């Protein structure tokens, strides 16, 4: 709804005053206004007795709040949150600032030992929109019109499950959901593995049948009558229901307001020229040792700081600093590290009359550093395309944050250190892009001042270093984490309008369980949160906050509904078939969502209700690269095979480099594979 404009201004967020209102509900009245003296389990939703927080996400924990765009505020209670082995329950205060659930949701419920063999699956979702589908998922607009949403169902596959009755049923949408929107889900006709139909829970049966005896449950009657009426318009009979409920997603104001406020105020503080740079080290490479790069530069750039340290046991995480209105505010300055590379071609161009150079910003991989700019494939590209390359850390998800993130896994109360610190990291990416472009003359002088006579001789520089830029050739590329968060970054950028995203994805709650990279963090989590249902819920609960920086909530704003004062953007997504680290499934969901990102021809397999786009194509697109791996088996597990992980291969493939160079130069996606799937080169 906010994507269409209206009164959902994304420039601000729910304030701390709102947050304190909702937090009060965690100690007194519940979201529906009942008190602890009448509601025996105020922190739980009794319509699914499998766990306090099931079903999830639930209207049970949406408190009315007329001050928010959605009219709601999350009101999760600490008494109902998962507890670690020390008995510490997750503190929901950070979550209760939100005005709804995130858009990276999966609907979770427990039907013990449910038979999923006939349910729509990841590979064959056919039937998910059928009139007689066992699961009905609806999106409801402001006028009350309900539209069926495509989905697939899967069971949690936690390694500690000892009994099939512990496996949570997860219903995942096959398109990216909308902001500030009501969703309704219904289950009917589900059976267990022995063919026995599931009866409704006692609480849900009372709501469904109108035979409510408990006063605290009576207060939810109006909410559920609305659910049943919505389902009736979709042809779902009330008497057939085993379970049904609704929830509302967060507004753009709650999801993006902090980030947009930081972007706009931070860049205003810096001014039109962006941050100032301090050059600390310059390395010169002789041509005999390095054919592509002449000079490698490291240093710092000075940016406004919007976060403050917060202790995570013996480690330190970072949270946003907020003003009295709840908006992020500057708290001093920070000197962030940067890396910059000048290709040999730039010096040759200078000697030949000073041909202009382009700019390429690089986003590093999982928990890495900007030094990954120096990878061999990047060096070759910078030389071939006459570009200055530069990079910064993804502050919040860089190497420096590994200790705090690892410690956070022991107590999810601290989960907010990831998305909130990433707000600072995203701003630093935006800031360095502006600074390198506008201060290249100053940077060149500072680099030149560091060069020794021996270094000048090594690179053949006979005069002062001078670099002339073509500002229209400013683009972004990143791989893995840099491809994932690159989508968020590009959607926010007011300067970079075209980007190549290598092995990207979206929605970490889907990605993590399908990634080998999550295994060590899962083992830490497993040691402290020993309930398998707790762990399934925690990943989904965490996504509510992660959506503030996760590309799942930014792809819509790439070109379909750009943020205010932000241009439209186009991206080339290049995934690897059978990727061990980033699941292609999430890119397929992105392409199906109708945001202008086309599934390019020769994908390698047909996709349900997703027709391929022929080459060449001007605009955004998804290309799949095949290095002999099979498509991943369905389910929330990492793929493994004897061939090995193809994750790092597309970025080094000359065919992909040709494709993305052409795309960045022209906006056109060409076929580099001769009219066939991009299989291993022979």
Write the layout of secondary structure elements.
Elements lengths: L15 H10 L36 E3 L7 E3 L32 E3 L25 E6 L5 E3 L2 E5 L13 E5 L8 E6 L14 H8 L5 H4 L2 H13 L9 E6 L3 H19 L6 E8 L8 E12 L2 E6 L2 E6 L12 E11 H8 L5 E7 L12 H10 L1 E6 L9 H7 L8 H22 L1 H11 L2 H7 L9 E11 L1 H12 L5 E5 L5 H4 L7 H10 L3 H15 L23 E7 L7 H9 L4 E3 L17 E2 L1 E6 L28 H13 L1 E2 L13
Parallel strand pairs: 15-16, 15-17, 17-18, 18-19, 19-22, 20-22
Antiparallel strand pairs: 1-2, 3-7, 4-5, 4-8, 6-7, 8-9, 10-11, 11-14, 12-13, 14-16, 21-23
- How large is the share of residues in beta strands? 15-25%
User: Would you identify the regions where 5 or more consecutive residues have pLDDT less than 50?
Assistant: 1-37
Largest sheet: 10 strands, mixed
Q: From the alpha-carbon coordinates, what is the Rg to the nearest angstrom?
A: 26 Å
Strand tally: 23
Total count of helical runs of at least 4 residues: 17
Average pLDDT: 93
> Order of strands in the sheet with the most strands?
10-11-14-16-15-17-18-19-22-20
| 3D shape | globular
End-to-end separation: 49 Å
């Amino acid at each position: 709804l906010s994507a269409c404009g209206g009164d959902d201004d994304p420039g601000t967020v729910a304030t701390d005053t709102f947050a304190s209102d909702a937090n009060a509900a965690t100690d007194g009245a519940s979201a529906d206004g009942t008190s602890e003296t009448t509601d025996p389990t105020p922190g739980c939703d009794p319509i699914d007795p499998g766990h306090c927080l099931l079903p999830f996400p639930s209207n049970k924990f949406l408190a009315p709040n007329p001050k928010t765009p959605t009219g709601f505020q999350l009101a999760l209670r600490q008494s109902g949150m998962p507890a670690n082995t020390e008995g510490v329950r997750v503190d929901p205060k950070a979550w209760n600032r939100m005005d709804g659930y995130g858009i990276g949701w999966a609907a979770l419920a427990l039907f013990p030992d449910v038979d999923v063999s006939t349910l729509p699956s990841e590979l064959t979702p056919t039937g998910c929109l059928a009139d007689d589908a066992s699961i009905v998922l609806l999106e409801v607009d402001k006028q009350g019109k309900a539209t069926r949403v495509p989905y697939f169902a899967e069971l949690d596959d936690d390694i500690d499950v000892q009994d099939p009755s512990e496996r949570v049923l997860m219903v995942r949408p096959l398109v990216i959901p909308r902001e500030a929107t009501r969703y309704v889900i219904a289950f009917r006709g589900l059976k267990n593995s022995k063919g026995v139909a599931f009866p409704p829970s006692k609480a849900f049966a009372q709501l469904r049948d109108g035979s409510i005896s408990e006063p605290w449950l009576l207060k939810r009657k109006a909410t559920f009558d609305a659910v049943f009426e919505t389902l009736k318009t979709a042809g779902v009979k009330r008497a057939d229901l085993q379970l049904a409920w609704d929830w509302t997603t967060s507004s753009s104001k709650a999801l993006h307001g902090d980030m947009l406020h930081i972007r706009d105020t931070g860049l205003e503080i810096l001014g039109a020229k962006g941050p100032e740079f301090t050059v600390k080290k310059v390395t010169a490479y002789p041509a005999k040792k390095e054919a592509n790069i002449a000079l490698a530069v490291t240093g710092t750039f000075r940016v406004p700081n919007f976060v403050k340290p917060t202790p995570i046991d013996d480690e330190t995480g970072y949270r946003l600093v907020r003003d009295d209105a709840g908006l992020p505010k500057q708290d001093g300055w920070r000197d962030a590290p940067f890396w910059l590379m000048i290709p040999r071609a730039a010096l040759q161009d200078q000697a030949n009359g000073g041909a202009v150079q382009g700019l390429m910003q690089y986003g590093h991989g999982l928990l890495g550093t900007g030094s990954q700019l120096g990878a061999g494939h990047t060096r070759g590209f910078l030389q071939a395309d006459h570009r200055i390359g530069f990079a910064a850390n993804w502050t919040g998800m860089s190497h420096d944050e590994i200790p705090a993130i690892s410690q956070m896994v022991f107590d999810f109360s601290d989960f907010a250190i990831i998305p909130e610190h990433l707000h600072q990291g995203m701003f630093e990416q935006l800031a360095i892009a502006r600074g390198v472009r506008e201060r290249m003359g100053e940077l060149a002088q500072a680099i030149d001042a560091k060069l020794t006579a021996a270094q000048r001789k090594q690179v053949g520089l006979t005069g002062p270093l001078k670099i002339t830029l073509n500002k229209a050739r400013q683009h972004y590329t990143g791989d893995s984490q840099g491809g994932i968060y690159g989508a968020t970054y590009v959607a926010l950028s007011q300067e970079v309008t075209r980007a190549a995203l290598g092995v990207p994805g979206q929605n970490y709650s889907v990605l993590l369980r399908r990634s080998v990279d999550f295994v060590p963090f899962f083992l830490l989590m497993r040691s402290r949160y020993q309930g398998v249902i707790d762990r399934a819920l925690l990943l989904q609960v965490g996504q509510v906050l992660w959506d503030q920086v996760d590309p799942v909530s930014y792809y819509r704003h790439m070109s379909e509904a750009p943020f205010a004062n932000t241009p439209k953007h186009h991206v080339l997504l290049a995934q690897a078939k059978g990727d061990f680290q980033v699941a292609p499934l999430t890119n397929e969901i992105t392409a199906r969502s109708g945001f202008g990102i086309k599934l390019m021809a020769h994908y390698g397999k047909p996709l349900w209700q997703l027709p391929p786009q022929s080459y060449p194509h001007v605009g955004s697109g998804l290309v799949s690269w095949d290095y002999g791996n099979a498509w991943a088996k369905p389910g929330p597990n990492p793929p493994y095979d004897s061939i090995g992980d193809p994750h790092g291969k597309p970025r080094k493939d000359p065919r992909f480099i040709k494709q993305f160079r052409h795309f960045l130069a022209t906006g056109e996606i060409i076929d580099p594979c001769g009219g066939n799937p991009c299989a291993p080169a022979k």
